[in-house]
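Severity: low
Component: inverse-folding endpoint
Summary: output formatting inconsistent between runs
Steps to reproduce: submit the following structure tokens with default settings.
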């Protein structure tokens, strides 16, 4: 039994599907207590129930429902961790939206949704997490889930890539602001990953073959590929790692193919 996170309380936004779910499951396997956040709909509640059934100890898992773009939801997540698990040691800002859209015909609502969830939601959830960690005086780890899109452009992602660059920049600045409290802030930058957000894109066989040809490891990522690096950043193994960006893209961003 892996035990890298025994005694730690964690919270993860957008955590019943994709990368967030994979991280939550791995944190639970490593002994952490976990608060997950998900949207207020039947499908999300059903996914949470399946996560409970898979948990080694269901008592170490609870949920907070709501859209992370709402400031109150971020505060509720942190309060839930304190109430149920006595504090907060790790916070993963994972919730995000990603749609492929044409720049010239983009609707204001699409841009607003990306900014509100990916940037505003990350800020208003990590701020209360940091406040609790500072008050407890035990340090902590804040992890932002960005994307290789923080460094790469995309013709149909002009509204999206700046939001992921903002997450990276936010974590770097938080590392500067919170280091004196022993709080480490780092960023994971996934490459193309088999999540709900990417399902339609990856269903195109020609597009999938093209993507795989550009990745030295020869495949797109599974959500579980992000879980190990997230455990590392949450654990004491990374106690001197702060302000870092960890690419988890199979080598895509450095490939010349």
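Observed output (run 2 of 3):
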């Amino acid at each position: 039994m892996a035990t890298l996170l025994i005694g730690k309380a964690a919270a993860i936004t957008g955590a019943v599907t994709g990368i967030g779910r994979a991280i939550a499951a791995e944190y639970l396997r490593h002994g952490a207590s976990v608060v997950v956040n998900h949207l207020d709909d039947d499908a999300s509640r059903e996914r949470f129930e399946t996560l409970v059934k898979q948990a080694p100890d269901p008592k170490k898992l609870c949920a907070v429902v709501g859209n992370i773009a709402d400031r109150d939801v971020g505060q509720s997540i942190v309060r839930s961790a304190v109430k149920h698990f006595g504090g907060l040691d790790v916070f993963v800002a994972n919730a995000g939206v990603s749609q492929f859209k044409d720049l010239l015909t983009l609707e204001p609502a699409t841009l607003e949704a990306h900014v509100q969830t990916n940037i505003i939601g990350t800020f208003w959830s990590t701020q209360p997490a940091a406040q609790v960690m500072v008050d407890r005086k035990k340090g902590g780890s804040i992890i932002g889930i960005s994307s290789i899109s923080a460094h790469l452009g995309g013709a149909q992602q002009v509204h999206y890539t700046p939001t992921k660059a903002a997450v990276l920049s936010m974590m770097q600045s938080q590392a500067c602001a919170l280091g004196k409290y022993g709080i480490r802030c780092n960023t994971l930058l996934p490459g193309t990953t088999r999540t709900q957000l990417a399902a339609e894109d990856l269903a195109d066989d020609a597009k999938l073959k093209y993507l795989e040809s550009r990745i030295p490891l020869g495949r797109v990522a599974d959500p579980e590929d992000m879980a190990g690096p997230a455990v590392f950043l949450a654990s004491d193994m990374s106690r001197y790692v702060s302000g870092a960006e960890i690419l988890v893209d199979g080598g895509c961003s450095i490939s010349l193919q």
